[in-house]
Amino acid sequence: MSESGEFRICFLGGTRYSQPLDATSEKKFRLLAEAAGIFVIGFAQNLKPCRFRQHARFYLLPRLPLAGLRYLLMLTAGAALALWLILRHGIRIIVAQSPYEGFAGAVAKRLAGLLGRQVALIVESHGDFEQSLFLQRRVKLPSLYRILMRWTAGYAFKHADILRAVSDSTKEQLKRWAPGKPIVQFPAWTDIEAFLNASPEPPATAVLYAGVLTPLKGVHVLLDAFAKVIKHLPEARLWIAGREENKEYAAALRQQVVALRLNERVEFTGEVPQQELARYMARCRVFVLPSLSEALGRVVFEAMAAGKPVIGSAVGGIPEMVQDGVTGFLVPPGDPETLADRLSWLLTHPEEAAEMGKRAKAFAEKFFSPAAYQQAYRELFAKAIETLPSGQ
User: Fold this and answer.
1) Start-end ranges of CATH 3.40.50.2000 in the chain?
2) 172-222 confidence digits (pLDDT tens)
3) What is the assigned CATH class of domain 8-190+370-386?
4) Residues near 67 by Cβ (< 8 Å), separated by ≥ 6?
5) Strand ranges inside 82-119, DSSP E
6) What pTM, to 2 d.p., does this model score?
C-alpha cells in the first residue's frame, strides 16, 4: 500500500541513517514503502537532528556521544515522537527494533490508548539483548544496567502484541521472556544482489572480516589465529573492514597487530559501503566471523552470496547458516588454535575452498530474497492489524 493507504507503520530503533540514504537502506525502504506507509525514528550521523523523506518519512534524533545518553534520549524523546506520529499521522503499528526501543514503543502505545488511539506493537530481537551490550564495551555499574535493562525489556514484552526473531537462537530467547506471545521469524535485510553479482576475481591468499569493532565480535581472537597462520603461509593477508564502534577496543587491536608483528600483513579498511564490501568479498579466499555472541550474522550470508566459504563461531544463529565441512567451518568461540587450523586448511586447499564457496552461494540464494523479505513484513503487518479491536 502507499503512504495514503489503509495503515501506516513507525519503525523505532537505534540505527543511524544518512541523508540521502545509502544505497542499501534506499533499497530496503523502497521495498517496505510498497507494503505500507513507513515512518522511521532513528539517529542522525551527528549531533544535528533532521527530518527528511525518501520512500519513508525519517525523524532522526541527535547522535549523542555516550551510549547511555542515546538510550535515554530514545526512551524519552523517541516515545514522545512516536506518540506525536500516532496522533498526527495515524500510525497503526509501531515496530520496535529491539526490546529496549520496545519500551519507548510501549509507552507511546499506552499513552495513545488513553487518548483513544489503539496501536499494535511489534518488538523485534536482532541479537542477544541480555549479554551483547556487555560484550561490546566496558559498562560502568553493570549490575544497575542489568536491572534497568530487564525492567525496560520486561515492560516492552508485556505490552507487545507480536514478536519478531531473526534466528532460532533469538526466537528461543524471546520464548523465555514472553511465553505465549506470537513470534514471527525471518532474517534481517541485506542488499544481497550486490553480493550475488559481485564480479568474480582470482582470489588472493586473503582472509576477510567485516563488522563493527567491538569485543563481542572476537577480532582479537582472529588476530591471534592469523599470527599462527602466517608462520606457515607468510604470503597470507588479513583485511579487517568495519566501523570502530568501540574506540578503546579498536586501539587495542592495532596494538595487538604491532605486538604480533603483523603490520605488513593486516589492513584496517574502516567502514566501507556495501558495493565495496562486495568487492572485498570477491577478492578474498575465506570470510571469518569469530563472534563470541551473534544473533544471525547477516554478513555471513552476504559472504556466502559472494561465493565464499565461511568460518564462523558456533554461537547464536551462525550454525543455522554455515554447514560444517560443507559451506565452511564452525569453530568454538574464543579458540584461536582451531580457528588457525581451519584458516590454514582453506588457504592451502583453494579448489576445495572454491567448491565450498559454490555450495555457500547456492544456500544464500535460497536463504534470502528481497521479495520474501517484503512478503514476510506484509504478513507481519497484517497479523499486527488483526490484534487491534474491530472498528479501529
Assistant:
1) 8-190+370-386, 192-367
2) 999 999 999 999 999 989 888 889 988 777 667 999 999 999 998 999 999
3) alpha beta
4) 137
5) 91-96
6) 0.86
